[in-house]
Amino acid sequence: MGKEIHARARFAVRVQPRAKVTELAGRFDNAYRLRLAAPPVDGKANEECIAFFAELAGVPKTRVRIISGLTSRTKVVEIDGIAQEEMERRLTS
Question: Is this prediction's pTM over 0.90?
Fold first, then answer.
C-alpha cells in the first residue's frame, strides 16, 4: 500500500450571523468574512459555518473543525483533505 498524502488547510474567518444569505464577503484584516444566515444560538452559526466550508472544500463535514473561536466572531477553521493552496484559491474565486 502507498502512503496516504495528508493535506490540511487552516485559515481565519470573521463571521456575521443573521445575514440574509450565507456567503463569503471578501476579507476583513487577516480573515475571510463570512455572512451566515443562522443565528448565533445553540451552535447553529458554527454548524452552518462548518457546513459551508465542507461544501466549498468538497469534503465531509466531519473533516472541518473550528479550532479556535467557538464563541467568538473570529474563528480559525481547519479542513483535512484539501491543500492550503487549493483552499485559498477556492476562497478567493
Answer: yes
